[in-house]
Amino acid sequence: MHRLLLLAALLLALPVAAQEALPALHVEGNRIVDEAGATVILRGVSFSDPDKLESQGHWDDEYFATAADWGANVVRFPIHPRAWRERGEAAYLALVDAGVELAAEHGLYVILDWHSIGNLRTEVFQADMYQTSKAETARFWRTVSARYAGNPTVAFYELFNEPTSYRGTLGRLAWHEQREMMEDLITIVRANDPDTIPLVAGPDWAYDLTGLREDPVRAEGIAYVAHPYPQKREQPWEPKWEEAWGFAAETYPIVATELGFMNADGPGAHVPVIADETYGRAIVDFFEARGISWTAWVFDPEWSPQMFSDWDFTPTMQGTFFRDELRRLNGTSDE
């Protein structure tokens, strides 16, 4: 038992070796750029939780290879706090290590996402799976940033998935309070890893970035997050997207780390994701006009809105749409 504990401690202390296949990314103005200063637009998919995928036997090369075959150049790992605790830190980090290695082998950048939904200020959350604390969140980013420092495959740290007061039911959450908490996390991350790009979301389930107009995060080299699901606003969408978060792309890099759509009669259909390809076409065109990076939710047949319907990777309606767009826009289409 003592030898196992010592081995776990050593694994936690060791950084993951950097992969050389992908150039390191950084922020210049409102752009994400590579080492040569060329603009990089990231377009890809958000996975489901690595803990879920591994328990079902799908945290493997086929899964990553399929994401790459669909045209992705970035993938997102949503790490739920409850899964992090239940699997245990050492075991969960081993999962992430394996995923980072597979991503590098397939030319995919990685977003590591602390996948909580709720109010970090009051420490009240939308469901048990998202339950965390300010202390646990800080410890998570201290551990992760030390482990993946210098690994260019791990290009982004999404500090908190979806901040929300849930219409006051989770307590007050003003933008300046969210900003200050994220600045604390950025300080912790940068002490270990000055190069990886922190991603900061705004309130209203990562939709509202209007606080940036007068009070941006007091840190350089970061990017901001939008989750522009179709039912967040009524059509016409474009003026409302521009007002709430699109305007920020003139000044800062934006990464839309979740978006997606499905039919109302599909499995698990729920507000705010019910729509059709009209939404898909509108949101992708909006991103392209502003140089916004994105990852579609979700590369899984059970969580919704699903991108494929079974483990043969049969694409759903939105899966077909985003697969074709990824191949076209990332230059992997045969057409």
TrEMBL record:
Ordered alphabetically, the record's keywords are: Glycosidase, Hydrolase, Signal
**Where in the numbering of this chain does the Glycoside hydrolase family domain appear?**
33-300
Q: Name one GO molecular function term.
A: hydrolase activity, hydrolyzing O-glycosyl compounds
Single GO BP term? polysaccharide catabolic process
- Reading the lineage from the top rank, the first entry is Bacteria
- The signal peptide stretch is 1-18
- The keyword Hydrolase appears for this protein: yes
Claim: Signal is one of the keywords in the record = yes
Give the family, as the similarity comment puts it.
Answer: Belongs to the glycosyl hydrolase 5 (cellulase A) family.
Q: What is this protein called?
A: Glycoside hydrolase
Organism of origin: Rubricoccus marinus
